[in-house]
Amino acid sequence: MEAVLISIGTELTTGRVRESNSSWLSRELDDRGVRTVMCMTVPDSRDAIAAALTRALDLEPELVVVTGGLGPTADDMTTEAVGEALDLRLDLDPEAERMVAGAVGLEGLDHRQRKQATMPAGATPLPPAGTAPGYLLRYRSMPIVVLPGVPWEMRRMWQAALESPLLRTALERAVPSRRRRACFYDSGEARVAEAAENAFAGLRDQLQPCICARYREVTLELSYPAELEAEVEASFAAIERELSEWHYSAGEPVEAVIAGLLSGGNKTLAVGESCTGGLLGGAITRVSGSSAFYLGGVIAYHNEVKQKVLRVRGEILGKVGAVSEPVAQQLALGARSLTGADYGVGITGIAGPGGGTEEKPVGLVFICASSEEGDMVERFDFPGGREDVRAAAVIAALHMLHRKLLDEIDQE
């Protein structure tokens, strides 16, 4: 079963707002056995929206989902474009009118609010999560789902759409696939690709592994029919053996793996961050139950805070600077000392875009993972802009800590 997704909004096509609805919906659909064959993002233009919908229908998918452009303002033109593309008249829907009235808390609606209650003929309205109802249409037996673009509204209303007989019946034809993942760090994408090609050589015509690389993490993912379970498991086992040096999970993020190791070993963790500004602590606390092992962190951005709170020595700062191996080490040691944690991580670097020199360029980061067993300190030179450097530093710090935990757990 195949689907096409259309996201609408000039704020998306200009890059002012990051488009996230299509990726969320694609995952939702993939879990149900529906393959997204195209995602389109178009501005708030009646002609552009109608053209995108026409293009989607030309592909003859079994499902189309449209998000955005259902608001009360003049630039919200999705419904008008849907009517044009499908040659349907637009009517004020009584049920949608009641929904909007309930959402805004008014009995009489003005022309903008009535606009939100106007729908193509034959549409079934969906209760709004905000003020804009969505709706479902049947087009040549195919469901078209039209939802608001605000992500939290879209997600809540998608759940309501799943309860509709039209969409429920359509999705019953889909056959959910099984999914298998293997995650690696610092292996390189090419090495994983070669291992996968060799392992799946006998299944090449039946399976298409997907490989994604980001910030030195490489994820190998495969969707497959249940009847190939044994072959897929054998292939993944071969890949994980071959790349055991870099393999860290079967799909869990590294922070979840770390959480299991720390909780299982009754160990605690604290961090001292400079250039990452709290992102490392944020990654760790994404894991439910992290309060069992994570004692806290210090964002020591200014040198005075490094000295007063985490006891970084002033003579070290004066001699080698804040972005240096000794300072990363003292940030980690300071976090341990301040909180009494078993493990500490320290990060210091130059995220840019300014502040770099020939000796210490933008992207230079020092990270330390510390425990009573000793300190592991590494230098990194990360490419990209400010957010790339900060994100890569967090991932690198987590994997350093992971390696250290594995080494020390083995010793115990």
List how many beta strands DSSP finds. Answer: 17
- The CATH superfamily of the largest domain is identified as MoaB/Mog-like domain
Strand order of the largest sheet: 2-1-3-8-7-6
Oligomeric state of this protein: single chain
Spatial shape: globular
CATH architecture of the largest domain: 3-Layer(aba) Sandwich
| Whole-angstrom Rg | 26 Å
Supply the helix-strand structural class. Answer: alpha/beta
CATH class categorisation of the largest domain? Alpha Beta
**Strand portion:** 15-25%
Q: Overall mean pLDDT score?
A: 95
Q: How many domain units? A: 3
User: Could you give the distance between the termini?
Assistant: 51 Å
Q: Number of helix segments? A: 16
What are the low-pLDDT stretches, counting only 5+ consecutive residues below 50?
none
Helix content class? 40-55%
Could you give a short account of the major beta sheet? 6 strands, mixed
Summarize the structure.
By secondary structure, the protein is of the alpha/beta class. Helices cover 42% and strands 24% of the residues.
Question: How are the SSEs placed, and which strands pair?
Answer:
Elements lengths: L1 E7 L1 H4 L7 H11 L3 E8 L3 H13 L4 E5 L10 H9 L3 E3 L1 H11 L6 H6 L1 E3 L3 E3 L7 E6 L2 E6 L3 H12 L2 H7 L6 E8 L3 H11 L10 E5 L2 E8 L4 H14 L4 E3 L4 H11 L4 E5 L5 H7 L8 E6 L3 H8 L3 H7 L4 H15 L3 E7 L14 E8 L2 E8 L4 H26 L1
Parallel strand pairs: 1-2, 1-3, 3-8, 13-14, 13-15
Antiparallel strand pairs: 4-5, 6-7, 7-8, 9-11, 9-12, 10-11, 15-16, 16-17
